[in-house]
């Protein structure tokens, strides 16, 4: 099982360009599909029920915050040629270790939910027992890291799954015939605004390990340096836009169901929407989308979480693919034996929201340290907008965490 980086970095002009195009798409879709997990489907459905057409405004604001966060993070990682934890350690010794611990714990906890989602997806798609489905899904994820060129396999898998999800979601959105005109109007003139919904969407889209998924992937493929900035920027925006297209398509599908006055099952909101939209076929489509969303999140969470400890010891670097596999196995075993620890997941979710301001704030400081970025000059507009995201998400993340802490003691 070859190292991801050594299996992909190649010399020669034309070959390198071709590889880079594939890697750029792969990084974009790795980030996008990592953020489109089981929670993504449920959150979007629930918030659309609550806010109706005004949820379009929430999507618009969250997309802006997502793009600012990702462009900052990807550029600084790419220019420095260092992973997030290495940059943090250079800004403040020991900070990288703290960041790595938070991300690995959060990634492991959420991967339990991702494995559960994959099991539920195969249950809806094929009628399999959820635990059996989870084990099969874990096997698929592990196989990706067992093939000779694991990085390329991961890139292709993320792209294929992402495109399938987007196409199926658009089909269901068209099927429900949503009031598109009203959705467009309320996107810019909402009747109701939910800051909690914005924080939840931003945290779920670029929080925790997801913030670094694409940037770390590009580093492993050798895409770094000031000369690579145009490609890095395009890849980061492409990832957010892919997430945005998926979010908008799901929003319109749910809005179409809600506008018809149909009742959505509170026990499984997204599955209910698909079933109401297209009957039994719709339910099977939900299974495909849920499985694709969950399995790609399993891959993304494991890969990125482990990338945060690779630099801590030569043995971890040497055997990181096997550690990724162990990460997936542990998540699957915990789900099979214990199930989803709901309270823990909620608390980790709140902590996840705090990782974004900590990580982004650290990288913004790093952008002005020559021993990290050399002669690179970070755009002022990115610094200012990035600082706004840090302050906003930091404040709202703390408020959310305080609100959720009592759940641990219930």
From TrEMBL:
It is a multi-pass membrane protein. InterPro entries: NRAMP_fam (IPR001046). GO terms for biological process: iron ion transmembrane transport. The chain crosses the membrane at residues 23-41, 47-69, 90-112, 124-145, 157-174, 194-215, 236-261, 281-309, 321-338, 344-368, 380-402. One of its GO terms (cellular component) is plasma membrane. Pfam families: Nramp. Its main location: membrane. GO terms for molecular function: cadmium ion transmembrane transporter activity; manganese ion transmembrane transporter activity. Keywords: Membrane, Transmembrane, Transmembrane helix. It is found in: Membrane. PANTHER family: SOLUTE CARRIER PROTEIN FAMILY 11 MEMBER (PTHR11706), TRANSPORTER PROTEIN (PTHR11706:SF2). This is Divalent metal cation transporter.
């Amino acid at each position: 099982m070859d190292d991801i980086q050594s299996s992909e970095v190649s010399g020669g002009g034309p070959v390198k360009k071709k590889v880079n195009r594939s890697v750029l798409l792969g990084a974009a879709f790795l980030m996008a599909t990592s953020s489109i997990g089981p929670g993504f489907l449920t959150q979007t459905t629930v918030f659309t029920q609550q806010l109706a057409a005004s949820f379009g405004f929430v999507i618009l604001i969250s997309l802006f915050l997502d793009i600012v966060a990702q462009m900052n993070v990807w550029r600084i990682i790419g220019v420095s040629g260092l992973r997030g934890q290495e940059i943090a350690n250079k800004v403040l010794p020991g900070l990288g270790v703290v960041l790595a611990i938070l991300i690995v714990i959060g990634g492991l906890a959420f991967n339990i939910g991702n494995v559960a989602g994959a099991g539920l997806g195969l249950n809806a798609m094929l009628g399999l027992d959820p635990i059996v489905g989870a084990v099969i899904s874990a096997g698929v994820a592990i196989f990706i890291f067992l093939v000779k060129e694991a990085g390329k396999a991961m890139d292709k898998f993320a792209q294929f799954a992402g495109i399938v999800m987007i196409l199926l979601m658009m089909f269901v959105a068209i099927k429900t015939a949503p009031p598109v005109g009203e959705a467009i109007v309320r996107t810019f003139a909402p009747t109701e605004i939910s800051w909690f919904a914005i924080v939840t969407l931003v945290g779920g889209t670029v929080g925790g390990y997801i913030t670094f998924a694409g940037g770390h992937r590009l580093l492993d493929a050798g895409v770094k340096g000031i000369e690579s900035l145009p490609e890095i920027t395009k890849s980061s925006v492409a990832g957010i836009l892919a997430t945005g297209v998926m979010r908008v398509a799901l929003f319109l599908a749910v809005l179409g169901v809600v506008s018809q006055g149909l009742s959505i099952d509170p026990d499984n909101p997204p599955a209910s929407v698909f079933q109401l939209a297209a009957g039994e076929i719709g339910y099977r489509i939900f299974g495909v989308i849920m499985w694709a969303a969950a399995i790609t999140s399993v891959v993304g969470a494991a890969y990125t979480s482990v990338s945060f400890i690779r630099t801590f010891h030569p043995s971890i670097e040497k055997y990181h693919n096997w550690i990724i596999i162990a990460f997936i196995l542990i998540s699957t075993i915990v789900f099979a034996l214990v199930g989803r620890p709901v309270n823990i997941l909620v608390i980790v979710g709140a902590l996840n929201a705090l990782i974004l301001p900590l990580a982004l704030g650290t990288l913004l400081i790093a952008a002005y340290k020559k021993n990290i970025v050399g002669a690179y000059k970070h755009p002022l507009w990115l610094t200012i907008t990035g600082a706004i995201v840090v302050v906003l998400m930091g404040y709202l993340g703390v408020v959310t965490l305080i609100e959720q802490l009592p759940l641990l003691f219930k």
